[in-house]
Design brief:
The N and C termini lie far apart (61 Å). The protein is elongated and about 90 Å long. By secondary structure, it is of the alpha/beta class. It has 17 helices and 20 strands.
């Protein structure tokens, strides 16, 4: 019997001391539960992803020093920790160390380096070449892989199982998008059945800039059954007793290097007084629920890890700012969120009232700063230059930029983080104002399509008896309120149609001609929407970072040139 545990930790990139302290705390927990093996996620020592910090020699040295300092504290337990390894030529490797009796007894280097979507690992790392099995009393016990290694068909895990490994341990920093956990679980369970081995999946949790790591670490039996699973979107510690039936592997199949463990003792169950935690699979979250939790975690960690204790939001009385505000409250607490209403002559009495009611419902500080006098002053300054020219979006954008300036002034004065409130649908087609409503330090719902905004708002309202977001906000047709009687549909198709087009074109890379044939979208709508997407890349390049919740978010996932002449 082997008692194995996973420490699902929330690390900070470059915080070697803080990350080491978290590791040390979990080592104490491992002692309490008398674990044989304790597993930490990918690059636990330095945090993930370190990006171009990896190009700094002193960063690599600090990471190695932190690993060796920790190794001195590890006694009889076998501990597996992710770190950055290097060779004598200076090549870097995404690696994990196996530590026991104060020594690093083996290192596995990641073999398959992802270089797509948000991943750039080939920019920094060399691929590992050696598959390793760790054995006990000359019997194959466990083997290691790192994140992408287990996603690849016929990856290292296949060879490891054929060579007799009974436990396949994968340490990961697998970023979240909607539905990812279901895909991941299905893949891991299939691998367990295929290899007839236990699978231990140790995933990172936490927000890192645009990325959110959902955790959801688990231990799976050879029958493909989840026997222990960590919670999603929070730190956790799980453990399970694995009944290992050693089998003699066919010597012709053994191609992995073997390292014998100096200590991995059988457990005397009579000595254990604490029950194992989480030896069951928690109930799956609904898709909307997991997206909401990802948005809360991403906002919470971005603020905390960047030294912000309070956030400020422009509250318009619309659905986007309402959802952003409630996410901020769940992430930071009501006392740490400030709502600012910035009405103009085009703001109707209903939206002004709804903005105030929302802030009261959420229990956050409410400030009203009318912008009409400032707007009038701007027009006065510009009247001679603008004379005889018709009123157009210039005057509309002025209002948005005045609001952005005021919010940034509050941020500057009080060190509040400005949360931008734009959604993915608006950002896709440029229905937003550069240096106006796009101003801010973090864009919470940047990757959330408008139709999903409504679903998330409804979900959050359902979580308690009194609705926090007034129904009048949810039911009112969306409007920027930058001119009289304005509605979003004056400029854009209905959001149900727009979001379907955007998903197909942006996230699925479908050809425009194929969209018209397969989806039945009208040609005049396509001729309007697609050019808006293509010509507004310059705006998206200047938008604040925001939480990724789809398989293809703007930024690292989708890297389009601003200057080009390609037209579909």
């Amino acid at each position: 019997m082997i008692r194995l545990g996973i420490a699902q930790v929330n690390t900070i990139v470059g915080d070697f001391k803080g990350n080491a302290n978290k590791i040390a705390l979990n080592l104490e927990t491992a002692e309490k539960y008398d674990l044989d093996i304790l597993v930490f996620p990918e690059l636990t020592i330095c945090g993930y992803p370190p990006e171009d910090l990896l190009l700094k020699k002193h960063f690599i040295e600090a990471n190695i020093e932190a690993l060796y300092t920790l190794a001195k504290k590890i006694t009889s337990k076998t501990v597996i920790i992710g770190f950055v390894d290097h060779d004598e030529k200076g090549h870097l490797y995404n690696a994990c160390a196996v530590i026991c009796n104060h020594k690093i007894i083996g290192v596995y280097r990641k073999m398959f380096l992802p270089n797509y979507a948000v991943f750039d690992e080939k920019r920094y790392f060399e691929a590992g070449q050696e598959n390793i099995i760790f054995s006990k009393d000359r019997q194959s016990l466990f083997a290691l892989s790192i994140c992408e290694d287990i996603w690849v068909k016929n990856g290292p895990y296949v060879e490891q199982a054929k060579s007799g490994a009974q436990i396949l341990i994968n340490i990961s920093a697998s970023p979240y998008y909607a539905g990812k956990n279901r895909e991941r679980k299905a893949m891991l369970c299939a691998h367990a059945i295929e290899t007839q081995a236990f699978i231990c999946f140790a995933n990172l949790i936490g927000g890192q800039d645009e990325l959110v790591f959902d955790g959801s670490s688990c231990i799976i039996s050879p029958k493909g059954k989840i026997i222990a699973q960590a919670k999603s979107f929070t730190e956790d510690f799980i453990a399970a007793d694995l009944n290992i039936q050693f089998q003699q592997a066919n010597k012709k199949q053994i191609t992995c290097k073997k390292i014998n463990l100096p200590h991995c003792a059988q457990i005397d169950i009579t000595k254990i007084h604490l029950p194992l935690k989480n030896n069951f699979a928690p109930k799956d979250l609904s898709l909307v629920q997991e997206i909401y939790q990802a948005l809360v975690l991403g906002t919470k960690d971005y603020a905390a890890k960047n030294g912000f204790s309070k956030a400020v939001i422009g509250i318009s009385g619309g659905i986007d700012s309402a959802l952003t505000a409630i996410i901020a409250v769940d992430a930071l607490g009501a006392d740490n969120v400030v709502g600012v209403s910035l009405p103009s002559q085009y703001s109707c009495s209903e939206t002004k009232l709804d903005a105030e009611i929302l802030c009261k419902n959420l229990g956050i500080q409410f400030i009203r700063i009318p912008i009409q006098n400032i707007f009038t002053a701007y027009l006065s300054v510009l009247k001679d230059i603008f004379k005889q020219m018709p009123v157009d979006t210039t005057e509309e954008n002025l209002q948005a930029r005045i609001r952005g300036n005021i919010l940034m002034a509050l941020s500057n004065k009080f060190s509040w983080l400005v949360l931008a409130t734009g959604n993915k649908s608006e950002l896709s087609v440029g229905y937003c104002t550069l240096y106006g409503d796009m101003a801010g330090g973090f864009a919470v719902i940047k990757d959330v399509p408008k139709t999903l905004v409504y679903k998330l708002a409804a979900f959050r309202n359902q979580q308690q008896s009194n609705e926090l977001i007034p129904q009048s906000i949810i039911k009112r047709p969306p409007s920027a309120e930058l001119k009289n009687n304005q509605k979003d549909t004056d400029t854009l198709p209905d959001y149900s149609i727009l979001d379907a087009i955007l998903k197909a074109y942006i996230e699925e890379n479908q050809k425009v001609s194929a969209l018209q044939k397969s989806q039945g979208f009208k040609e005049e709508i396509m001729r309007k929407v697609i050019p808006l997407v293509d010509k507004n890349e310059y705006k998206r390049r200047q938008s604040p970072p925001g939480i990724r919740i789809t398989p293809k978010a703007f930024g690292k996932d989708r890297r389009m040139p601003i200057t080009h002449k390609f037209i579909e």
